[in-house]
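Protein: Helix-turn-helix transcriptional regulator
Species: Streptomyces erythrogriseus
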Amino acid sequence: MAGHGADEHPHGADRLCEAGDRVYSRAVRRGRLPRREAERVPCLMELALLHPDPDDMDWLVPTSPQEVMTRLLRGMYDEVRASQRRVGSAVAAFEWYAGLGRQVPAPGGASEGPAIRVLDGLARIQAAMDEATQACTTEVLTVQPGGIRREAELSEGLHRAMALRGRGVRMRDLYTHVARHGHGLLSYLELMGGAVEARTLDEVIERLILFDRTVAFIPANAERTMALELRHPALVEYLGTVFERLWRLAIPLTAPLPDTGIEGISHREQAIAALLAEGHQDAVIAERLGISVRTCRAHIARLSETLGAASRTQLGVRIAQAGLDGARPPVVIPPGRGSPTAR
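Structure follows.
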């Protein structure tokens, strides 16, 4: 029977191969069969469905179907009992670990919940923001990039801002300098009265909303259709520190932007010059300052004209010479001259 082992018949007594079924059926009908007829189906011997006839070893007799069924049912019962024991062990382990989690108090008295939660979809984001607003009692810190805020964006969170104002919550907002030119923002701040304080910078980090130094929300994709809800104390503290440092560098919205000290160069053009000196492309500069690429290029053209640069390469040199790259204080350019070295 060499060459016809169990590897060629990978089954049990409940699912015989076609050849095994045929030979076993014949044995049951006849009561016994010659050993040579079972040589090509060794599975029947291995599964104890056939065994030698004690009266004549050249013949094989079948195990009765009733005995085979009893054996199969007993095996299935044992498997079910083993599965039940494994399920019971898994449930017990889960309950044990869950119990340990309940015994550990949340850091800083924070409510139970994951340290980082992904919010997929605007509806879930809005619901989580509303929940955080209702729980907020002290302060809200926000960073709003993207330049001039559209009326729709301001109206979207107005109900939350009004609810916070009603509870005496302090709000501080950071915007880019470009946002100063939006009438919607000025109207929003007027409506909120002294509840909101706003400052601006040349550029800010991505959007951030931080409630009571306990929970923060940041975008999770470029389209802002997904967000991360952060409750890990270390992450929240880090974001709060970043905000405070930016806040100290920012200029109050009610204060004018500082003069560049160079006639004909605005504060925005000075920021563009610094980013050009760092090697950034027009599109990147526009995104960081919250303006359109077209507006950015118009400012670059005015920079070139003011500094007397005929090419982008020469503009880079002129920016460095004028100190607009941030390496040293700006050089005051007398009226009518393109740069300190202009001919």
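Remarks: The two ends are 104 Å apart (CA to CA).
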